[in-house]
Design brief:
This protein is an alpha+beta fold. It contains 4 helices and 4 strands; from the N terminus they run αβαβαββα. The strands form 2 sheets. It has a two-stranded parallel sheet. The chain has a two-stranded antiparallel ribbon with strand order 3-4.
């Protein structure tokens, strides 16, 4: 999972370069109760990490599962979910599919 963070950060950097007109941002949401892994996540990538808790309940509100990339639309509501359990960003097709989802979500409602 941690290796996927590096690929995701690279993708976001590419999108900022290729499509600076689109409001694309990424952050990691660490599941409540798994705080012990935060240092490892921060060493792998420069993505901002949000620690979920019983007040924010982000995982619950977004119906997220472990290794999900939840893409939000312009209204900050979940637009699409891309599972890194069934896809890997080392596969060029999966990488392109996730990248396209980010663009699609950012363009929706323009």
């Amino acid at each position: 999972c941690r290796s996927q963070f590096g690929y995701l950060a690279k993708m976001i950097d590419e999108l900022h370069t290729e499509r600076p007109d689109l409001p694309i941002h990424a952050l990691a949401v660490n599941e409540d109760g798994l705080q012990s892994g935060l240092n490892d996540l921060c060493q792998v990538s420069d993505l901002t990490v949000l620690q979920d808790d019983d007040v924010a309940r982000v995982w619950e509100r977004w119906d997220a599962s472990w290794r999900d990339v939840v893409i939000l639309g312009r209204d900050n509501a979940p637009y699409a979910t891309f599972s890194l359990s069934s896809h890997t960003l080392t596969d060029p097709d999966d990488y392109a599919a996730l990248k396209a989802l980010f663009i699609e979500a950012a363009e929706a409602g323009e």
